[in-house]
């Protein structure tokens, strides 16, 4: 019935393998690093929260700028390579770290590398994947990430078993052995990305330089970002889960096995969740994941035994599997292609702003500060559950439920001239703006709830009674795209919507300003050649044929 989907771009597989190797390296260390700080160096819980919060915030702020820079430079790959290399080069310094300040410095540099690489890498994945496969691509990437964590943790289990007899507390010698083992996969990952990935051409934008701002990315994206920030206020670092597990009587070895179980669940869930996100509105996968998170955190607050903690820690993988890939695919749907780096970076930057107070506040709620002893280990988990529930409710209300954009089926025929040529008796005039920049034309994707939902069109709309083409173009483009019309041509093409009363007049339009997707689910700039492979509204498809013919064979 449906054709086999096209193969995923090599960038998806290279990025997945790179993340796999990086997580093999990182997860040898990350699950035991809070224990090294607490058991070996004697660092207090609120200080650990501050250390993690500062590093994660720095990482997220850098994502903002690296994403923007990838849009400005129109390249993603080499920024990602530089970020992975920075993290890899920081790891050897953990071997000699003997104070919490030294550990904080190494983790800070490692997170700087993550901040540099993440937004360009995610934008590269989105650029390399058609819209109807992005959920699958991001889900596969997250599965590779978590599978690497499983392998890294199993290596850590083997090392801890061989290195120390008492598994209840982590020793200094064991930690430094883990550091040495983590170096090889980290550096191999950098080489793989550098040699295997390819940059993808980014559609040219009308804006000379992308700007770092949420407003310019559209209201749907802003709504999702606000909900995510609220969620993040309660999402303290996973170090608190590790410390809670140890507080409930689970040994170092037990914590490592729990991390393995968590990542196995994460791996198993990620790819099917990504495929599901290509078939239903992606926001509902995020909604479900946030509710799972709320349930897990509530359980951690109430957990009375190590068995309770073990079940909850494993279930925590369901939240990550549902959300990690779906959220990133959703962001790609909400913004035009030429601003994806900025969008991923802006999203991560906002999350980072919330990460610092989230982890610091969690530490203070747990252990207090100064003379105050806090509310106990349960408090940060009660708070996290409450914030996740609030964010999920607002997500359901504020973020539009759009299905993933559809791709044309191979061999799908466009409507014939005959099906659209006969004009209705009383036509309703519609202006369609042909806006060109550097050989590319501006199109918008119609929202799912409207006629021809999910199809691409030249922007415009119905003329009001007595309204001129110029007046209608000015009003419609201001409302839909926040553009100012300076001049229009005589109609280039006139078509009639099959089964409707609309007479669509395509006019060349000169505009001022930067286009913003106000009423469309997405906007983008495309060559006449690219239009032939897109799923267009019927009359727009006919005009695109005319446009491609007039542009000549080089218009690709």
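-> sequence recovered:
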């Amino acid at each position: 019935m449906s054709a086999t989907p096209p193969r995923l771009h090599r960038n998806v597989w290279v990025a997945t393998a790179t993340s796999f190797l990086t997580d093999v390296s990182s997860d040898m260390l990350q699950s035991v690093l809070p224990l090294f700080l607490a058991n070996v160096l004697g660092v207090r819980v609120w200080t650990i929260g501050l250390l993690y919060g500062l590093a994660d915030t720095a990482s997220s702020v850098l994502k903002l700028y690296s994403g923007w820079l990838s849009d400005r430079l129109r390249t993603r790959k080499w920024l990602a390579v530089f970020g992975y290399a920075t993290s890899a080069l920081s790891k050897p310094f953990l071997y000699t770290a003997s104070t919490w300040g030294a550990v904080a410095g190494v983790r800070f540099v490692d997170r700087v590398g993550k901040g540099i690489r993440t937004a360009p890498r995610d934008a590269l994945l989105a650029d390399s994947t058609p819209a109807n496969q992005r959920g699958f691509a991001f889900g596969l990437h997250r599965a590779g990430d978590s599978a690497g964590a499983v392998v890294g943790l199993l290596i850590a289990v083997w090392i801890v078993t061989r290195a120390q007899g008492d598994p209840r507390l982590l020793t200094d010698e064991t930690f430094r052995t883990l550091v040495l083992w983590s170096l090889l996969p980290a550096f191999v990952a950098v080489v793989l990305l550098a040699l295997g990935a390819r940059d993808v051409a980014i559609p040219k934008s009308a804006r000379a330089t992308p700007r770092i701002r949420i407003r310019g990315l559209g209201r749907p994206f802003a709504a999702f970002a606000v909900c995510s920030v609220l969620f993040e206020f309660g999402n303290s670092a996973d170090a608190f889960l590790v410390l809670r597990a140890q507080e409930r009587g689970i040994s170092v070895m037990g914590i490592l096995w729990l991390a393995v179980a968590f990542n196995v669940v994460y791996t198993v869930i990620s790819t099917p969740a990504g495929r599901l996100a290509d078939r239903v509105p992606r926001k509902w996968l995020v909604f479900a994941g946030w509710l799972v998170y709320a349930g897990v955190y509530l359980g951690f607050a109430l957990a009375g035994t190590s068995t309770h903690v073990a079940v909850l820690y494993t279930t925590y993988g369901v939240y990550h599997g549902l959300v990690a890939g779906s959220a990133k695919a959703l962001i790609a749907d909400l913004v035009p292609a030429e601003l994806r780096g900025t969008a991923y970076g802006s999203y991560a930057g906002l999350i980072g702003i919330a990460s610092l107070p989230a982890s610091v506040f969690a530490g203070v709620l747990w252990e207090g500060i100064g003379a105050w002893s806090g509310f106990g280990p349960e408090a940060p988990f009660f708070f996290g559950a409450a914030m996740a529930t609030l964010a999920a409710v607002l997500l359901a209300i504020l973020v539009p439920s759009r299905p993933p954009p559809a791709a044309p089926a191979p061999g799908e025929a466009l409507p014939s001239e005959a099906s659209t040529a006969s004009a209705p008796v009383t036509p309703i005039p519609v202006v369609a703006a042909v806006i060109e920049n550097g050989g590319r034309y501006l199109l918008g994707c119609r929202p799912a709830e409207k006629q021809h939902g999910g199809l691409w069109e030249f922007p415009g709309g119905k003329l009001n009674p007595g309204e001129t083409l110029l007046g209608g173009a000015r009003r419609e483009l201001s409302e839909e795209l926040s553009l100012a019309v300076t001049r229009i041509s005589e109609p280039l093409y006139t078509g009639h919507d099959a089964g409707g009363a609309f007479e669509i007049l395509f006019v060349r339009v000169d505009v001022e300003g930067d286009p913003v997707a106000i009423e469309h689910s997405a906007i983008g700039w495309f060559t006449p050649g690219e239009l032939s492979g897109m799923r267009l509204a019927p009359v727009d498809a006919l005009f695109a044929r005319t446009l491609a013919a007039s542009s000549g064979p080089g218009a690709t």
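Residues 134-163 form the longest helix (30 residues).
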